[in-house]
Amino acid sequence: MNENNQDNEAGTEPTVSVPKSAKRWYAVHAYSGMEKSVQRALTERIERAEMQDKFGQILVPTEEVIEVKNGKKAVTERRLFPSYVFVEMEMTDDTWHLVKNTNKVTGFIGGKSNKPSPIPQHEVDKILQQMQEGVEKPRPKVLYEVGEVVRIKDGPFTDFNGNVEEVNYEKSKVRVTVTIFGRATPVELEFGQVEKV
């Protein structure tokens, strides 16, 4: 029996790791536009403090959106939750201080200032799913609705206003009804040719 104890002390001990269940997700408020900077700073501080076992993912949830500039489609990134960074972590005094004292962080969201509440897992799953959908199928930056009035800013009907009759996000086109000489005329236009009034 004594020999077994000596074997364990001689370095054959199993490595101790924090179970995944001890880590929860927390919302951290950051200065506007500084979310990625906070994400990088947190990652560096965690490594310097050698606390990688107490932290999981650090997310700045974004989705890809299609923007039309000068008639060309461009895919850009849009933050789903501006000013928020989501941190998967085991909440202890040390981890709380590490996050709270990171440059450009104003604090945790929810709960008490020194005892934040974790985000429910189903909410986190929703955010992760939304991010995945944004990568697989980027959405247009500007969303149009049927019945909405738009102004045509390009083409033969420039400066005419019309009602949106149909929206085709697959082709990034809208069908707009324009009144010309007292007659309603449907016109198919690209998203870049119209703007909200």
- Round the mean pLDDT to the nearest integer and report it: 83
**Number of H/I helices:** 4
Q: Which blocks of ≥5 consecutive residues have pLDDT under 50?
A: 1-11
Strand order of the largest sheet: 11-10-9-8-12
Strand content: 35-45%
Order of helices and strands: HEHEEEEHEHEEEEEE
Helix proportion range: 10-25%
The total strand number stands at: 12
Shape: elongated
User: In whole angstroms, how far apart are the ends?
Assistant: 83 Å
Gyration radius over CA: 26 Å
Structural class label: alpha+beta
Instruction: Specify the biggest β-sheet.
Output: 5 strands, antiparallel
Structure description:
Pfam families: KOW, NusG. One of its GO terms (biological process) is DNA-templated transcription elongation. This is Transcription termination/antitermination protein NusG. With 197 residues, this protein is of the alpha+beta class. The protein is 25% helix and 36% strand. It is built from four helices and twelve strands, in the order H-E-H-E-E-E-E-H-E-H-E-E-E-E-E-E. The chain has helices at 2-12, 35-48, 93-100, 121-136, and strands at residues 24-30, 55-59, 62-69, 72-79, 84-89, 105-108, 139-140, 149-152, 161-168, 173-180, 183-190, 194-196. The strands form three sheets. Strands 11-10-9-8-12 form a five-stranded antiparallel β-sheet, with no helix packed on it. It is elongated, with a radius of gyration of 26 Å. Residues 1-11 have low confidence and may be disordered.
